[in-house]
């Protein structure tokens, strides 16, 4: 896909720069790594100059339009904008989707704002995302758009190119007995009651119901893929469509509480409606779960730390208010604490989350709370191990007091 459009100096420079980045990550202990880094920086400087010249020529009225090679060059430069080689521990086991599209590599790379703006500019000049070469860029540019905006907690710029696929009806997945049972459980606490005897839970806005239903079903399909056996999805390609749809949906959902409000601002606003706080906790924890299981990124992106910081602040805020009458809110907040606690492992927030969870874990064994957590969205291979560690540690701390 990429070789067809690399016939100009700008494209060649960008590809060489990208290759040096991949080599550095793949061979971190090689004796020539420093030389590769230095050479990569030189190639990057030359590539940036070439790209700037390209954009300036067009903006000054050059009749030459942008080619696929131009777009490819800036795409490669954008995803290799800067690289985080720091050794940061993963807070949880990796989802299979973490390596599916090399997110464990690309997640270390921070796209440069200037380069992303250049991509958006070129795509706009070519008539929009639907008018670019779909074979070359039809899937990679929307994914880059998703990942870039996930880092910023801003809506994607491009419209969603994915349509929901009914995996079972299309014969892509045949749930076995275990999967059928998990389909009944997964996301149960986000669904309206079947007989309408209970109102929608107080922590979920109706427009999030479908999104969470899709994420719950996709989680069960992913679990079946991991277990293998009859009826399991043949590959992760089967799940990618619905994962991307869910990613686009939750990233496009505006916050219920303005992100501009700092922790201090929130604490000075005791009159924020409880329902609004619950909605925002639900949105943020859905984003955290997405970043853990369905559109995973390494801790280098800062996504987990940013959202878990906000969740912690909102839970502390809601605990200072009058008790919530609806008993369903208690288990929801416990799930939110655990999801936030997993995301905050090995960070400055770990102790704060442990103190929150300690109050609940003191009188509740893991064997009791675990089945209740799985009624929200929960992927066992990713969530079980860190959650149980957090729970047992919190219990030990409560006993030592």
Structural class: mainly alpha
Largest sheet: none
C-alpha termini separation: 61 Å
- Kindly estimate the percentage of residues that lie in beta strands according to DSSP: under 5%
Q: Rg from C-alpha positions?
A: 23 Å
Can you give the helix content as a percent range? 55-70%
Provide the domain count.
Answer: 2
Low-confidence stretches: 1-8
What's the β-strand tally?
0
Q: Give the topology string: H per helix, E per strand.
A: HHHHHHHHHHHHHHHHHH
Which of globular, elongated, flat, extended, rod-shaped describes the shape?
globular
Number of DSSP helices? 18
Average predicted local confidence, pLDDT: 85
Question: Quick gist of this model?
Answer:
The protein is mainly alpha-helical and 401 residues long.
Structural write-up:
This protein has helices spanning 9-26, 33-59, 68-79, 97-100, 103-106, 113-125, 134-137, 140-152, 177-185, 209-227, 237-252, 263-267, 274-294, 303-319, 328-343, 350-361, 366-373, 380-400. The chain is built from 18 helices and no strands. Helix 1 (9-26) packs antiparallel against helix 2 (33-59), helix 9 (177-185) runs antiparallel to helix 10 and helix 10 packs parallel to helix 13. It has 401 residues and is mainly alpha-helical.
